[in-house]
Design brief:
Blueprint: H1 9-20, E1 24-31, E2 39-47, E3 52-60, H2 70-82, E4 90-93, E5 102-107, H3 115-120, H4 125-143, H5 158-172, H6 177-188, E6 199-201, E7 210-213, E8 216-220, E9 227-229, H7 232-237, H8 258-267, H9 275-301, H10 308-328, H11 355-373, H12 376-398, H13 401-414, H14 420-432, H15 439-456
Helix pairs in contact: 4-8, 5-9, 6-9, 6-10, 6-14, 9-10, 10-12, 10-15, 11-12, 13-14, 13-15
């Protein structure tokens, strides 16, 4: 399999000429932001008669495991498009002789995909008023897609996915106590498939995977996590706090309310929905995103996909842990004074600036000079890099005292001392093996996560909905 990391316009022109059935040249080829492991490229195919085709290439440069393959995604888009779901029209599949990896080409639909702009810019104020109803209607159509029209997809009910994500967590070798509390709850409350049977599940239906115009939803993207299963999984996923992008008081994607989503879903033909059923899949979705963050970070750490975006996702795991505690255990009662970190400035023989000062200088350069002078993927990664440097600044300010506090408190709880990483693993193991989730255990889990968030995203623990 080719592992070409860039795309040459001439090679793409040969593939597009074959796929479109007319000689074309390529203009405006650029990689779009996002897509940490799978790629999206925008381009225009210009025919000799003067016509232009606005297109997008979705591709994997090399082998990719664990998601719907591009050929299946191509067929899936055709099926859901025929069922009335707003998706881009697919044009052609890449072939091995194209030497461009595996993928397909589809029509380019203009609009916004960056969730923060959709949620905040004046241009999308009207759209925000329509998105909840439009999402309910889109989900009803997705779930009504005839199964006979779909490519082969895995059947993944709640127990199957619990087992799947348990295996992934075990494979990382880095247990998280909050994940263990969530897995126990998910196992105890797992719903059966609906009486009507398994349906098509998009698997990643959320703000950020929509193309939005001023009037609202134009298309649903990113079908690589699609499978057969419980359709309410999609309603829970769009409610996960991470997909609200800071607008935490609007549970549905940062733009809507659950009651309105359910009303629109049922009005468009979806089966009746119990809010508790949605909540189950919101909990599962929160765990799922935390594990995906681990996966992306592992791809960076092991050199498979070196990316500042993937590296940053490793520190976002703490956000999902915090959300799981809110959902499964209950709201944060406030910091426990016994876990207070009092960091003193570290002595240094080095000249000024300090290490934190140097990090701050680079962060400010990215924010002030680079982000405003770039666009697309470079600007996106500059923003991510600035956020990463902010994490380093805060961790340097906290110093080693934070880890010392965690170690002391966990050693007291567990009855033995060890390196802090080992103690966290031991706490996770004790929960997995059935240890009582008493107040002391829950406090230890929550306060450990709070200390991690103090470096990675200190506002997150004070902005719960």
């Amino acid at each position: 399999m080719s592992r070409r990391r860039t795309i040459e316009a001439d090679a793409l022109a040969v593939a597009a000429t074959r796929g479109l059935g007319t000689p074309v040249t390529i203009e405006g080829l650029r990689r779009l932001s996002g897509g940490a492991s799978r790629e999206t490229w925008s381009f225009d195919a210009c025919a000799t008669d003067g016509s232009r085709h606005a297109l997008v290439l979705r591709r994997d440069p090399g082998a990719h495991i664990g998601q719907v393959g591009r050929e299946a995604e191509f067929d899936l888009l055709g099926a859901v498009g025929a069922a009335g779901v707003a998706v881009p029209t697919v044009r052609f599949l890449l072939e091995p002789t194209d030497d461009l990896g595996t993928g397909f080409v589809m029509d380019r639909i203009e609009g916004e995909t960056i969730a923060r702009r959709i949620l905040r810019d004046d241009e999308y104020a009207t759209a925000r008023g329509h998105l909840t109803a439009q999402c309910g209607e889109a989900l009803a159509r997705i779930h009504a897609t005839p199964l006979a029209t779909l490519p082969p997809l895995d059947l993944l009910d709640a127990p199957a996915q619990i087992a799947q994500y348990r295996a992934l967590i075990d494979g990382f070798g880095a247990p998280h106590p909050a994940f263990e509390l969530a897995l126990r709850w998910l196992t105890d409350h797992a719903p059966a498939l609906p009486a009507s049977g398994a349906r098509l599940v998009h698997g990643d239906f959320r703000n950020g995977n929509f193309i939005v115009g001023p009037e609202g939803l134009r298309a649903v993207l990113d079908w690589e996590l699609s499978h057969l299963g419980d359709p309410i999984e999609d309603l829970g996923w769009v409610c996960v706090r991470s997909w609200r992008f800071g607008v935490d008081d609007r549970r549905v994607g940062g733009f809507g309310d659950l009651d309105a989503l359910i009303e629109a879903y049922v009005a468009a033909g979806g089966d009746p929905v119990e809010p508790a059923h949605v909540r189950y899949w919101e909990v599962f979705g929160t765990l799922k995103w935390g594990v995906i963050c681990q996966m992306q970070c592992a791809a960076h750490e092991h050199g498979f996909v070196r990316s500042v975006e993937n590296a940053a996702l490793g520190r976002r795991v703490a956000e999902t842990e915090w959300d799981l505690l809110d959902l499964v255990v209950g709201p944060d009662p406030g910091p426990d004074p016994a876990w207070t970190v009092t960091a003193a400035p570290a002595e240094t023989a080095h000249d000024v600036p300090t290490a934190a000062g140097l990090v701050a200088a680079v962060r400010e350069y990215l924010e002030r000079d680079v982000m405003g002078a770039t666009d697309g993927r470079v600007a996106f990664h500059a923003r991510v890099a600035a956020n990463v440097l902010g994490m380093v600044e805060r961790e340097l300010a906290i110093g080693p005292d934070a880890s010392a506090v965690v170690r002391a408190r966990l050693a007291d709880l567990l009855g033995h001392d060890a390196p802090v990483a080992t103690l966290i693993d031991d706490l996770a193991t004790s929960i997995r093996e059935g240890a009582a989730s008493d107040g002391a255990t829950v406090t230890a889990v929550r306060e450990t996560v709070r200390i991690k968030l103090a470096a990675s995203n200190p506002d997150y623990a004070t902005a719960s909905d």
